[in-house]
Amino acid sequence: MSAFSRDDLLQRDREDPLAFTRDWFQIPDGVVYLDGNSLGALSQHVRARLEEVITAQWGQSLVRAWNAHDWIDLPARVGAKIAPLIGARANEVTVGDSTSVNLFKLASGALALRPGRSVILTEAGNFPTDLYVLQGVAEASGGRVRVQALPRHDLLGALNDEVALLVLTHAHYKSAALWPMAEATRAAHAVGALTLWDLSHSAGAVTVDLNAAQADLAVGCGYKYLNGGPGAPSYVFVAARHQERLGQPIWGWMGHAAPFDFTDAYAPAPDVRRQLAGTPPILSLSALDAALDLFADLDMSAVAAKGQDLVDLFISLVEARCAGLDLHLMTPRDRALRGSHVSFAHPQGHAVMQALIANGVIGDFRAPDIVRFGLTPLYLRHVDVWDAVETLRHVLTGRLFEAPRFQARQAVT
Ligand SMILES: *Cc1c(COP(=O)(O)O)cnc(C)c1O
Predict the structure, then answer these.
(1) Angle CA(46)–CA(49)–CA(53) in degrees, nearest 5?
(2) Measured between alpha carbons, how far is residue 172 from residues 149, 200, 367 in Å?
(3) Ligand 1, atom 4: closest residue by C-alpha
(4) 289-332 per-position pLDDT tens digit
(5) Catalytic: which of 35, 97, 130, 198?
(6) What is the model's pTM?
(7) Which of 312, 258, 246 shows the shortest CA–CA distance to 111?
(8) Looking at residue 395, what DSSP letter applies?
(9) 231: left (phi over 0), alpha (psi -120 to 50) or beta
């Protein structure tokens, strides 16, 4: 039993001051979309902007659009829109390449600022691309540096004067557990290390204040809670105090101080533009630009609070309606300590998620046994959470997941 009914949640939706934002998005009928932490939903704004950029800008202006529509400064303009969502100043953020590539650029640059040090410290079980990229950075160093990946509770205790860089993902992609950014940054700085934060599961979902935490560097995805579209470019934050000294290994012309002077020798731009490499992806950047306009007039702390309300609701309904059905909560109960998704372990997790998707509830599966549900505040209603948990209960009590068609592993989970 639960302490409230579906009707109570419909009432809560009628009283929700953020309910109106759902109308911006195009959620298919019959779907409860709980995977906006993996691929944010399409908004009308993005659709309209892409139409305009394709038809009027590219179609009509052709190459003149680089000046006429100021395409050349789009990375900076989009960066400036992301800045308030992550506690940065407008001139500390730019956008381009993927999160993986940006991790490589920033980690390589950071190591060069700490030439006498040999360790990149990160969390065991961090998002795979973060671990792989750091391993690649170590490999490229020719033996000068190594990656040390430790469990969360041992991590800050391992900081010492050999550590050049601490790389952490703010909200864990499986558990949603948050790192205390200010505390971890302070601990790193106390031993002279730099910090690099991955905000992929944070920006647009929880409040982030990089500058209040004195963070040095950060990256994050444009296609998750920011709704920039599949493969949207990633953002890069470099604290103002580091911009003149922090280099990066991909010396492309778009990071040059004067790209259109066409000189033979590389001379890096003096500011965060140095982090760019090649020609900006204008269609993807335009989509992200339009998606970010949706946040412009919203109070991020109210958005984040609604996300946490939905997570609380999801947990309490699962505990009331799905007790004894083999679901084990992997996400912190304390709303101050988590991002905006919730995960449960289940021995048949992959099949359970396949059965849920077949029944209109889209979440995702993370090996080996995690079913994960993104509670995106901008387009989910309280009643969606009710319906999702009822479907979950139906899948588990009816053992729908045992059907052979849900056993085969898909390429993307
Ligand atoms: C989603 C995610 C990424 C994705 O990186 P891409 O280069 O865009 O594939 C990286 N790090 C974290 C923590 C993520 O959650």
Answers:
(1) 135
(2) 15, 9, 14
(3) 99
(4) 999 999 999 999 999 999 999 999 999 999 999 999 999 999 99
(5) 198
(6) 0.97
(7) 246
(8) H
(9) left
